[in-house]
Specification:
Blueprint lengths: L1 H14 L1 H35 L42 H28 L7 H30 L5
Helix pairs in contact: 1-2, 2-3, 3-4
Length: 163
C-alpha cells in the first residue's frame, strides 16, 4: 500500500510539482492544526477534571461533545466570573484550520521555487553532500525562514488574530 502511494505521489509530483506541493502543504498544515487543537482540548479537559472531579458526570478523558464543534471559539474567555474549572475546552475551530491549510497552500509555490534554487545552487554530489546540505539549511534558516515568519505574522495581524 505504501509503495502504491509513493508511486502515485511521485507521478503527480513529476507532472505537476507546484500543485502537488500546494496540496501536500495544505494537508500537512491541516493535520498539524488538528493535532494542536485536539491536544489543547484534551489538556484543558484533564486540568478541569483534576480541579473539578464531578464535571457534570463527564468522566471520559477523550469525550468531546459534537455540539461544541459548531461554536465560535470563546477561549480564552474574558469572563472572569466563570471559574476556570467550570469552563469547557475550546471547541474545534474550523476557521483556524482553514487558515492554516490556506497558508500552506498559498505559500507552497514560493517554497517550491526556493528549494529548487537551493538544490541547483548547492547540489548534493559525492564528496560535497554534507557541506552543501549544511549550506542549504543555513541559507534556508537565514533567508527564507525570517521572510516566512514576517509574512506569516502579517497574515495573522491582517486577519485580526492574536498570537
Amino acid at each position: 500500500m505504501v509503495t502504491i502511494l509513493v508511486r502515485k505521489f511521485n507521478g503527480y509530483y513529476a507532472n505537476r510539482p507546484i500543485l502537488t506541493t500546494m496540496i501536500v502543504n495544505a494537508v500537512l498544515g491541516g493535520i498539524a492544526d488538528t493535532v494542536a487543537q485536539t491536544l489543547t482540548a484534551l489538556r484543558m479537559r484533564q486540568r478541569q477534571k483534576q480541579l473539578n472531579p464531578d464535571m457534570d458526570g463527564k468522566d471520559d478523558f477523550f469525550a468531546i461533545e459534537i455540539g461544541e464543534l459548531d461554536k465560535k471559539v470563546p477561549w480564552p474567555e474574558d469572563d472572569f466570573m466563570v471559574p476556570a474549572s467550570k469552563r469547557g475546552p475550546p471547541p474545534f475551530d474550523f476557521e483556524r484550520l482553514t487558515r492554516f491549510m490556506a497558508y500552506g497552500f498559498l505559500w507552497a509555490p514560493a517554497q517550491h521555487k526556493w528549494f529548487s534554487f537551493l538544490a541547483t545552487t548547492f547540489p548534493l554530489t559525492v564528496g560535497k553532500a554534507t557541506p552543501n546540505a549544511l549550506k542549504r539549511v543555513a541559507m534556508d534558516q537565514l533567508i527564507l525562514a525570517p521572510i516566512g515568519m514576517i509574512h506569516f505574522g502579517n497574515i495573522w495581524i491582517g486577519l485580526g488574530i492574536e498570537g
